[in-house]
Design a protein that fits this description.
This protein has about 250 residues and is α/β, with parallel strands linked by helices. The protein has one domain: Spore Coat Polysaccharide Biosynthesis Protein SpsA, Chain A, CATH 3.90.550. It contains 8 helices and 10 strands. α5 packs parallel to α8. The protein is globular, with a radius of gyration of 17 Å. It binds guanosine-5'-diphosphate and magnesium ion. The site of magnesium ion (MG) has 5 residues, from loops.
């Protein structure tokens, strides 16, 4: 089975090499990695090129001229994965918040599901204990209550950026029409997965805060996500909702 992992990067020079090395240690036979770098100032793009030279048939790089957002990076990445003939396309952050160790169990579950979501908000999911009580409550409220009330989605971690899609799932979701960019891109993809009646599994993960580098998600990005959820509802509101099968894994991955 061919697996393509898409890694958007913006100033991840201290993470990207170690992450790619760890991904190659996984027991996945045909693994390809695409790095989409938005002209990082810290030399991430150069390191990505070095990785391509080291693994010319397995690591690929797309350089974009400047910060163009996470959503457009994933749209480009999913298209690339389909063009490469991927059976599975994986999206994850390039900062170790999404541990590569979960990926083998994600892939195992792809026999039964179309989309696997690494989830912080199903039983067994955990957030970094360094998060303050307020930050935790706000995030939990936004993901598990706000989005679910507005969109009537079943997925509990609406903004999760750690997902594996089966090829047929991506072919079904009109992802190239998705215009949302920051966190809300994840919400729209989860919503479209449900609208299309896909079988979705949320796997509990431990989400560790990035060890090095800084978050690129600013307060305006978060506020934008809050109002754009309404926009998604307005855009797709008229569509009939298929009955998606959303479950969660009860034993730890
Ligand atoms: N190419 C690209 N990558 C981005 C952009 N914004 C964030 N990223 C990457 O997306 C991932 C998630 O971003 P991060 O700042 O860690 O978000 P947080 O985990 O919510 O704080 C990381 O790998 C970032 O380097 C962007 O505009 N373009
Ligand atoms: Mg992060």
């Amino acid at each position: 089975m061919k697996t393509c992992i898409i890694l958007p990067t913006l100033n991840e020079s201290q993470n990207i090499r170690a992450l790619v090395q760890q991904l190659f240690l996984l027991p996945l036979d045909d693994l390809n990695i695409l790095i989409i770098d938005d002209n990082s100032e810290d030399g991430t793009g150069k390191i990505a090129d070095e990785l391509h030279h080291q693994f010319p048939t397995r690591v690929f790089v797309i350089h974009r001229p400047g910060k163009m957002g996470l959503g457009t990076a994933y749209v480009t990445g999913f298209r690339w994965a389909l063009d490469q003939g991927a059976d599975y396309a994986i999206q994850m952050d390039a900062d170790f918040s999404h541990s590569p160790n979960y990926l083998t169990s994600f892939i195992k579950k792809m026999n039964e599901y179309d989309v696997v979501v690494g989830s912080r908000y199903v039983p067994g999911g955990k957030l970094d204990p360094r998060w303050s009580g307020w930050r935790y409550l706000l995030s939990k409220w936004a993901n598990s209550i706000y989005v679910r009330l507005i969109l009537a989605t079943q997925v509990r971690d609406a903004t999760a950026g750690f997902k594996c899609f089966r090829r047929a799932a991506l072919e079904k979701i009109p992802f190239e029409r998705v215009r949302s960019n920051g966190y809300v891109f994840q919400v729209e993809m989860a919503y479209l997965s449900e609208l299309n009646g896909l079988r979705i599994l949320e796997v509990p993960i431990y989400f560790e805060d990035r060890r090095v580098g800084k978050s690129k998600m600013t307060v305006p990005v978060k506020l934008e996500a809050a109002w754009r959820v309404w926009e998604i509802r307005a855009r797709y509101g008229a569509l009939k909702k298929n009955f998606a099968r959303v479950e969660w894994l009860h034993e730890p991955a």
